[in-house]
Amino acid sequence: MKRFAIRILWSIGLVLAVIFLNFSLIHLAPGDPATVIAGESGAGDPAVIDQIRADYGLDRSFVAQLASYVVRVAQGDLGDSFFFNQSVVSLIWARLWPTILLVATALIFAIVVGVLVGIFTARRPESRLSHSATILALAGYSMPVFWTGLMLVILFASVFKVLPISGMRDVQFDGGLLASWVDIGKHLILPAFTLGFLFLAQYSRLARASMLEVLQSDFVRTARSKGLSERVVVYKHALRNAVIPVVTVAGLQFGTMLSGAILVETVFNWPGLGRLAFDAVLRRDAPVLLGVLLVSTLLVIVVNLLTDVVYRIIDPRIRVGGAAA
Amino acid sequence: MSDLMLGSGAEAMAPPGREAWRMFFRNKAAVAGLFLLLGVILMTFLGPYVYDEDPKDIVARPLKGPGTEDVPGLGTDYLGRDVLAGVVNGGLTSLRVAAIAAALIVMIGVTIGAVSGFYGGVIDNALMRFTEVFQVLPALLFAMVVVALFGPSPWKVSIAIGLVLWPQLARLTRAEFLRLKNMEFVKAAQAIGSSDLRIIMRVILPNALPPLIVATTLVMGGAILLEAGLAFLGLGDANEVSWGLMIGQNRTNFITSWWTVTFPGLAIFVTVLSFSLIGDGLQDAFNPKLRGR
Questions:
Q1: pTM confidence score
Q2: ipTM score of the complex?
């Protein structure tokens, strides 16, 4: 419990460090910080520049500016977007859920299928399927995720016209709540598959490696010698252990997954944080870009904490003897 | 897996000897990776002389597919530029950015990891906390912010990529140093009064090299993917020819003009795959215990 409290405290420290990094970037960037913050859309207007100077206290010392920046962020004020003419927080809030939906679906898909493939190939390590899974894993990791997406779009736009290839909802959609969920679900399939495929390969390799190790361990031999069926041994005794490294890596790689989501959202016009970041880049909209960076980093930190919790639930050794880790 | 290969954890990562190289060259996938990389390098450095077309020249009507009359081999893009010329010339940007970024990653990562692992204690704690800050940043997003604020020159793109990818190498170097620093040969070096710097550079580091070489190979692939992603999003240098940029620029018409995005993407894929295959082969060769994982 005490270890966990320390972790939470350190997570808060991490958030502060990232805020500091954000702030330093604005100041290190070439040009007047006020014009950096105003972006392309705001920089032409002297009134906007003066407003930013006053808001951010840009005439004061670096430390005073930093302090007021931290206070503003802590109050949930990430500034305004001059292009979208909205506060950054409200923009991000609207785009956060689509991204979480996309990433969570991709993550679940990658973990479940990855672990299943891993188990299968671990039980027959020298089979042809097992070797092709290894090669496929390397191929999956090496494909630029935006290109995989574009290839799928071409395929589904011209050959199999069964799935929507762009956006999150049908423009002409008109129906009840359930039907609208089905509509979103249909739009979700291709982007989630594209993003999940990138990680599926890695997770299956990981699951396979830990499964190979677990299947040789003493407790599995004991379970077998008790006469338990192979199914019980594999899926009840060994599986739990094979999942641990996958969950750990999935948690640690959450940032990589968000990075992938940026590209996937751009390809499929999925209205999430990534698409917002892309639009912000096009408009040189620094507050939005920095806001997305901060919120995404927060997400990563929260997910890392959650992974720690899940890890403890799956692996009783860590729950009981916390000192070992 | 034979019993011979099950060494104890400590000796599993022997320095790369002749045996390791023999294992590497017996690995079909690794050799395939080596040939792919050789192909990419040949195409990048000799290709422009063999296929002497300017990738920025408008040579035919736009968006004409491969096989159309009077159109170059892989068709033309949205401006009527030669796609094949773009593919041949686009690799230089990627490889250069990846090489600079990898150098930066190794420099930062190995320095921080070595100091952290060797000295331990407070220094280790502080450096690892610092590393963690860069680890929680979503790599592509942070690189986007850096490039958007500081400009898209190849140097800045390389630095942005270097800044986000070094933590992996730092953690690995630290782990190797932690493992090696209490071994007898290190104690021996300390006993004869070698300086810390000498022990880090000449005694421990050479023994930590195999896993670091593997990680560096894999990180090159990651750097190329990141560079391509940035260029795709419009954050590359628009004056350079690059595979990612070609895909990004042709995004409006790609469904009907599939050749404009397929071939540059294939080039990225093959390049990254070659690094993955080589890295994987090196891993198996240096550390037989982990074979086939």
A1: 0.85
A2: 0.84
